[in-house]
């Protein structure tokens, strides 16, 4: 499980208390909420409008119910994404627009210190690390931002986001010791200088909240003083804040997501965070041992390829409910309500201002439960599917003069558009939805779709609709003590995902039909819509009065006024064409690891002769320090070479080593392979794996050594360690070799070590390690591989076994039309069993490692547009294969696959991908 921060247990001890008076209230603007002279709590009312960098100062505070923005209640529905997991700044806009469209009004971001700092005192906020650009983009997408800069962020990131170099400084993370604070404060000063320029309180951005994590009171006090001194005046979120920051753990499907987030709402929470809204890629050496796969969160609402997943529907529905129905910004616990069937647990809440009531029904049993639940003085029969939940309501205002008595389906939104009041309700496909609306006088319903039926009885309008798969049912209601038309919309999950409310300066808009609505702009009598389609889709628009014309993605759309008081496109919006992908051929191959040869020149390598270490791993008594971090090698593979004197009679070598998940060790003596080793159980889990590789000298090698003139007195031992990730719970634990022992001889040993060269100035410090090919630019575009061996695509899975590293390179071109957003993946499959690793580089960017272990499981690497050139430009694909001598030295079958496509998208700028540096 992911840790939320160092000292999580310490945090829990502080929960529910006001730590040193540092509660969340007060934005630093000097104004209290409600305004001076007002009495009593802030009443329920319309929420604040969409945020923007509008140049005006804003007041932010809270009470026990919700955030208060400029005197209005705000239910925060934040979605978490990590900008560093999408190394294509253009696509940040795509994800942020999707998050807003799917109901979020805020994005919660974590900032990984190790992404920005390759060495003490060195910081980089450019390119894929451009925090200023991200915050500007979030403001342009009208999303609040919750910033979490750590220093420790968890998030299944190497060392929890702490830089690798910190382990070699003597700093103790999570403490207030000067050695740690000196570095942590410098990191926060650099981050806060950017964040301060984008604070919503100042009107220069939309940063609304700042998460301040510390393990104890002293740390929290210091952190509070630090961020305030750096000019951060937005409220701070921490363990003692008045309002709880509810962040559900990862969920596996839509039902579990619904249960988790409705449970938060049932506690009266109005500060929600969806984990994770966008999963993204743990590219390079970014992932922690807790989640070593390149795919960070496959169950995220938006997956690694930026596609919606089945978990999205309940989040979309609940987000728009909190955004468009203000009753849910202030909920108190109400009188206990019990279902007739006790398998249904009911939580009853009420808004004291509006009289609306909410009922959260939860079914943890393995079967669907149908039961009566008392609501609005009536026993209402409700069905809750197995291991699912429902949110029902009574007393909600449905536009002017009408009120919901009760319903068996969840409200999604209630808004006024032009002269129409629109109320949408959602449920599962196949469900019989039943709505009851208070109507003292008999109304005039009009069926707009055949599924709707109704009856009027004793002052109540009863509406029933059988929800069909991906089908919206509309019912128009007029009269009944109101001059305004009420439009009821009933949808299943799939149909709800094509309902798009949007707020413009001139009024609200509701769009139905396309797969995504990115933006709506009112321009005179025209509404200009921007969005995505996959298949052919209807387009229906409810807009303010006077709107008579439509455009979609810049093109005029012929429309006419529909019976639902909407503007309907006469012809469907077009879908997206297929995107052909090339076969990957023209491969070239070259074996490396010259470091294993006895005569390899290692005079430029670092001598490993230290006797003390800052690592939390003890140094073996009487042995030199071999830990990679102590010699400045923090990521990727590390080579060791030992020159042995007095090695005659040597029979075996025992190598103790420590790695993160999926570690690997390969060893050679005098250039001859001794074999490979990996820690038992080191494919997943948490922390650090230690192991000892006992490697016997082959009989042939022993004979060769005895026949030498010196009788084998001297020898060269070469060891390659795939050290993998630093642990989150103990980032100072050693990585690499720990010690070496010898049987049959007691040689004198002199060690040298070599890891990665200087960090890539564009791709960052986590992009490459210490393989020979990486040090010499074999992974980069433009490397001259003309003298490499040609190899056919069919031969990739059948390459001969060898111990060591073999590289494969090819180039390919895509020609995706500019109006199409295509997501492309690279599948690596059919890899041999055994200790086999494939490192994937696209245009020099390290997309991650395929480590099939003993299963041969395939993996799909998402290739982000921007790094992937999609407009008739060449792409360089390089694969570095580590094999143990028993498995083939080829990567297996490798092919491009389509992961999704849409007509629309956002403009994508190529991500700089420099080739091999000359000189």
Automatic annotation (TrEMBL):
Residues 325-499 form the Beta-galactosidase domain. Gene3D superfamilies: Beta-galactosidase, domain 2, Beta-galactosidase, domain 3, Galactose-binding domain-like, Glycosidases. InterPro entries: Betagal_dom2, Betagal_dom2_sf, BetaGal_dom3, BetaGal_dom3_sf, BetaGal_jelly_roll_dom, Galactose-bd-like_sf, GH, Gly_Hdrlase_35_cat. Its EC number is 3.2.1.23. SUPFAM superfamilies: (Trans)glycosidases (SSF51445), Beta-galactosidase LacA, domain 3 (SSF117100), Galactose-binding domain-like (SSF49785), Glycosyl hydrolase domain (SSF51011). SMART domains: BetaGal_dom2. PANTHER family: BETA-GALACTOSIDASE RELATED. Belongs to the glycosyl hydrolase 35 family. This is beta-galactosidase. It comes from Streptomyces parvulus.
């Amino acid at each position: 499980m992911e840790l939320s921060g160092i000292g999580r247990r310490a945090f829990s001890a502080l929960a529910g208390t006001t730590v040193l008076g540092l509660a969340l209230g007060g934005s630093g603007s000097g104004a209290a909420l409600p305004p001076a002279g007002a009495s009593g709590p802030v009443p329920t009312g319309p929420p604040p409008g969409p945020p923007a960098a509008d140049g005006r100062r804003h007041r932010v505070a809270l009470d026990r119910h919700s955030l208060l923005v400029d005197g209005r209640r705000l239910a925060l529905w934040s979605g978490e994404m990590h900008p560093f997991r999408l190394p294509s700044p253009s696509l940040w806009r795509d994800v942020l627009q999707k998050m807003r469209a799917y109901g979020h009004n805020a994005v919660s971001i974590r900032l990984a210190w190790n992404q920005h700092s390759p060495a003490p005192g060195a910081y980089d906020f450019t390119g894929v690390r451009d925090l200023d650009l991200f915050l500007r983009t979030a403001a342009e997408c009208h999303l609040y931002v919750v910033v979490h800069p750590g220093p420790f962020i968890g998030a299944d990131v190497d060392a929890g986001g702490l830089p690798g170099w910190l382990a070699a400084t003597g700093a103790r993370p999570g403490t207030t010791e000067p050695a740690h604070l000196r570095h942590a404060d410098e990191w926060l000063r650099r981050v806060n200088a950017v964040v301060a320029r984008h604070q919503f309180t100042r009107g220069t951005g939309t940063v609304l909240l700042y998460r301040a994590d510390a393990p104890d009171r002293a740390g929290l006090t210091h952190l509070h003083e630090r961020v305030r001194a750096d000019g951060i005046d937005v409220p701070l979120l921490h363990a003692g804040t008045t309002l709880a920051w509810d962040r559900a753990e990862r969920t596996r499907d839509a039902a579990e997501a619904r249960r988790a987030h409705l449970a938060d709402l049932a506690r009266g929470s109005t500060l929600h965070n969806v984990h994770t809204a966008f999963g993204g890629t743990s590219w390079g050496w970014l992932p922690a041992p807790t989640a070593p796969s390149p795919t960070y969160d496959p169950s995220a609402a938006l997956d690694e390829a930026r596609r919606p997943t089945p978990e999205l529907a309940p989040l979309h529905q609940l987000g728009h409910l909190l955004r468009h129905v203000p009753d849910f910004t202030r909920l108190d616990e109400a009188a206990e309500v019990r279902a007739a069937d006790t398998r249904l647990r009911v939580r009853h809440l009420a808004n004291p201002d509006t009289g609306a009531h909410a009922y959260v029904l939860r079914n943890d049993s393995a079967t669907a439960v149908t039961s009566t639940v008392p609501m609005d003085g009536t026993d209402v029969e409700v069905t809750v599917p197995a291991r699912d939940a429902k949110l029902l309501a009574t007393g909600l205002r449905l536009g002017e003069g009408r009120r919901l008595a009760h319903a068996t389906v969840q409200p999604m939104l209630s808004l006024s558009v032009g002269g129409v009041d629109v109320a949408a309700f959602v449920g599962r496909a196949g469900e019989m939805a039943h709505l009851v609306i208070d109507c003292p006088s008999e109304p005039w319903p009009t069926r707009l779709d055949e599924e709707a039926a109704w009856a009027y009885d004793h002052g109540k309008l009863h509406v029933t609709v059988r929800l069909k798969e991906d089908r919206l049912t509309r019912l128009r209601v007029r009269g009944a003590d109101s001059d305004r038309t009420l439009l009821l919309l009933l949808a299943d999950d799939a149909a709800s995902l094509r309902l798009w409310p949007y707020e413009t300066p001139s009024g609200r808009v509701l769009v139905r039909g396309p797969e995504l609505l990115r933006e709506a702009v009112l321009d005179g009598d025209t509404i200009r819509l921007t969005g995505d389609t996959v298949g052919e889709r209807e387009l229906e628009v409810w807009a303010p009065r006077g709107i008579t014309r439509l455009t979609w993605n810049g093109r005029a759309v012929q429309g006419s006024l529909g019976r639902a008081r909407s503007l309907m496109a006469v012809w469907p919006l077009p879908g997206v064409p297929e995107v052909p992908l090339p076969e990957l051929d023209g491969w070239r191959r070259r074996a490396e690891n010259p470091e294993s040869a006895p005569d390899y020149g290692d005079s430029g390598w670092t001598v490993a002769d230290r006797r003390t270490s800052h690592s939390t791993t003890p140094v073996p008594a009487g042995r030199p320090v071999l830990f990679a971090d102590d010699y400045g090698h923090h990521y990727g593979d590390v080579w060791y070479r030992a020159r042995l004197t007095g090695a005659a009679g040597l029979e075996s070598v025992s190598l103790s080593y420590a790695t993160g998940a999926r570690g690997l060790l390969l060893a050679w003596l005098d250039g001859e392979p001794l074999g490979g080793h990996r820690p038992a159980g080191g494919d997943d889990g948490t922390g650090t794996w230690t192991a000892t590789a006992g490697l016997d000298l082959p009989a042939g090698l022993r004979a060769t050594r005895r026949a030498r003139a010196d009788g084998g007195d001297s020898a060269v031992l070469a060891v390659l360690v795939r050290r993998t990730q630093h642990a989150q719970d103990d980032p100072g634990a050693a990585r690499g070799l720990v010690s070496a022992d010898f049987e049959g001889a007691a040689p004198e040993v002199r060690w040298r070590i070599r890891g990665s060269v200087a960090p890539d100035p564009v791709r960052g410090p986590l992009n490459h390690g210490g393989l020979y090919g990486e040090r010499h630019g074999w992974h980069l575009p433009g490397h001259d591989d003309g003298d490499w061996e040609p190899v056919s695509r069919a031969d990739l899975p059948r390459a001969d076994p060898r111990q060591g590293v073999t590289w494969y390179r090819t180039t390919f071109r895509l020609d995706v039309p500019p109006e199409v957003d295509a997501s492309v993946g690279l599948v690596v499959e059919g890899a041999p069993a055994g200790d086999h690793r494939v490192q994937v580089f696209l245009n020099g960017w390290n997309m991650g490692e395929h480590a099939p272990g003993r299963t041969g499981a395939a993996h799909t690497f998402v290739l982000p547009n921007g790094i992937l050139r999609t407009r008739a430009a060449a792409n360089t694909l390089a694969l570095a294969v580590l094999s143990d001598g028993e498995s083939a030295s080829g990567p297996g079958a490798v092919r491009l696959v389509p992961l999704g496509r849409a007509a629309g998208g956002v403009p994508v700028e190529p991500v700089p991908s420099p080739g091999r540096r000359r000189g």
